[in-house]
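Posting this for the archive.
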Amino acid sequence: MKNISAAITGIECSVPEYILTNQELETMVNTSDEWIVTRTGIRERRILKGKGLGTSDMASDAVRKLLSKTGTSADEIDLLICATVTPDMLFPATANIISDKAGIKNAFSFDINAACSGFLYALATAEKYVKCGTGKKVVVVGADKMSSIVDYTDRKNCILFGDAAGAVLVEPTTEGLGIQDIILKSDGAGRSYLQQKAGGSIKPASHETVDAGEHYIYQEGQAVFKFAVKHMADVSAEIMEKNGLTSHDIAWLVPHQANLRIIEATAKRIGLEKEKVMINIHRYGNTTNGTIPLCLWEWEKQLKKGDNIVLAAFGGGFTWGSIYLKWAYDSK
């Protein structure tokens, strides 16, 4: 009997229409296009506008398009996992809401929160369900409305984040393609450097927490940058060494899009030329759980069946990880 592995068999994304440029940010806070681009590589980001719109609206749009694109009925989906740090509400799970809006009625669904590494954690979870036979068709969503927790008077953080959602279909294969290896790690000692201070059970929402701006993203940039450069680069190198891969074997590196300098450091660590690195941070900023599927979606037509691809991410928690996969299809 052939071994079963889990493969991405389709991908779709949803990005808001509104574009927040560096030039517009110059009118909002004390910053400049040159300062932003030099430090982050970001030139613009997408922002979800409209009363009552949340993460599930982008996500369900991506899921509906994914089902249509792959010729999959909503009734065929066994499981939907949503990776997000900006759920529509604390409960029910945003995955439940996405399923309802996308017409998925026969699946169970839940959320995963691993900050910017969440999409990798969710993809790794989906792989386990597929390999054990519980899920024949699993949808993994990475989605965040980061603008909902950004303080647009904070010149260091407001330049970084954008909104987006991506969804992939994961199915079993016996061709030796799909996910080959997974390395996921976390260190809760890093939680103080990147967090949302209020809104949880330790510090519930109150007039005081709102007035203090504690529901926005808090980040100690230098500390996070230092940890991210080391861990995202190291885990990418680790998964390659573990699987006997060299830079010549890798078709693409798909890094989390947090900062251009972090991406460049990761590529340098594994000896990969820029032409093999997916980079779109300049157009979308850091969309947290949306960054990796957004890259795969944009580069989909360039991906070839059998391509060796390394996914890598680092996020608050701290969380980080890498997934090595062989691309499972040629785009039409």
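The domain at 5-176 is CATH 3.40.47.10 (Peroxisomal Thiolase; Chain A, domain 1). The mean pLDDT is 96.
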